[in-house]
Amino acid sequence: MSKTIAVFFGGNSNEREISVITGMLAVNLLKSANYQVVPIYLPPEGGLQTGDFCNPNDFKSSAKTKRIPVQLEGRDLVRIKRRKRLYTIDCALNCCHGGMGEDGTMSAVLRFHGIPFASPEAPMSAMFMDKLLTKIAAKGLEIPTARAFAVRERDWLVRDAVLAKAEGFGYPVVVKPARLGSSIGIKVAKNAAELTAALNLAFRLDDLALVEEYFEGKRDINCAAYRRGGKTVISPLEEVFSNEEILTFSEKYEGVGLRNSQLPAEIPEEAAKKICAYTREIYEAFGGKGVVRADFLIVGEAVYFNELNTVPGSLACYLFGASLLESRNFLASLIEEALENPPRIKQTVTTGILEGNLFSGSKAAKRR
Predict the structure, then answer these.
(1) Where among 213, 239, 262 does a domain terminate?
(2) Domain count, the chain
(3) DSSP tag of 225
(4) Is the dihedral of CA 193, 214, 125, 132 positive or negative?
(5) pLDDT > 70: what percent of the chain?
(6) What is the pLDDT of residue 355?
(7) Which tens digits make up the pLDDT trace of 30-86?
(8) Of 4, 18, 234, 274, whose CB is crowded by the most CB atoms within 10 A?
(9) In angstroms, rounded to a whole number, what is the distance separating the alpha carbons of residues 331 and 287?
(10) Same domain, 111 and 29
């Protein structure tokens, strides 16, 4: 009997529409791998919906595709109206870019319901969704990153102090909302006026921003990793080109400008070795599951780790094969790895305290 695979996508995120595209790609590829695939859409207003979703057009405002509200009850997917169990889920795949889909919330929900999933766990997802925590993690692993300082929205109330810090830091700088992806809200600032505008934009989207040094002539390199058969598999390296100071959302997804990439990248051998080693080290240090994509900058002979995507665009399928068949086999390998290595259920200690005197002991609920 074929396994039932739930593919989650959507969510209340700036990247929701990109998530729909990734989700529909995964749904159709996995269907062709002879799984029973259940698409589960997370609408921005909350909840879960399933239906006969076939392509991204089913989520246009004009679409008439029927959406069935559902909920999880353990591994069962249950229709809410006229209650009925629709499916028992064998494994899940998270395709929710950004927001609570990528910050560990979705992973935690799946773990709570006892559903095996072919995606990173909550701690790793939460760490690398936050660009400040990413810097801290990289420092702990002694992996170089660009110099930066954090600005919280409350700090921006005393603008002179922040601007003075930036002046001492040196322009130009890159301003990044700390918990967004796909280049949304990222700006390069060459002076105090541009920094002010960039931080005002960042704080419309997030309450934490990173001000980071900008490298002229940098090269953007991507590297993905996943686990199969107990081993970490590293992708070929991809160099991404841009006509702008930074790679923009439009270049990534809308085909605006001459966005291009080279796979495999033609970079110095020593830099390539470092990037592969850093990617492997991060993935294994955080107990990686599923696929992640690490983004790096090459500046001269130096290599800097930039960020890690725990739900990368298209799930990084294209880095492991150019054809749809190779992409299908790659996603199937993620599912099979999760099915072959389900979470081990450890012993839960039951203290029996509720059966005794709740008002005794040094930490008990004392009567007042």
Answers:
(1) 213
(2) 3
(3) E
(4) negative
(5) 93
(6) 82
(7) 999 999 999 999 999 999 999 999 999 999 888 889 999 999 999 999 999 999 999
(8) 18
(9) 19
(10) yes
Strand duo 187-189 + 148-152: pairing: unpaired
Structure tokens at 163: 């601007």
Which of 178, 213, 248 marks a domain boundary? 213
105 and 198 both lie in a single domain: no
Q: Kindly report the length of the chain.
A: 368
pLDDT tens by residue, 288-311: 999 999 999 999 999 999 999 999
Between the alpha carbon of residue 306 and those of residues 208, 258, 270, 303, the distances in Å are 17, 23, 18, 9
Tell the residue number behind the tokens 């590829």, with chain if given: 29
Is the full-model pTM beyond 0.70?
yes
244 in the same domain as 137: yes
Among 13-27, 119-133, 222-236, 350-364, the least confident range: 350-364
Does residue 259 fall inside a structural domain?
yes
Instruction: Find out whether 222 and 295 touch, Cβ atoms under 8 Å.
Output: yes
What is the pLDDT confidence band of residue 362, given thresholds at 50, 70 and 90? Answer: low
Range of the domain at 96: 4-119
E strands, 43-152, are 48-50, 68-73, 76-79, 84-88, 91-94, 148-152
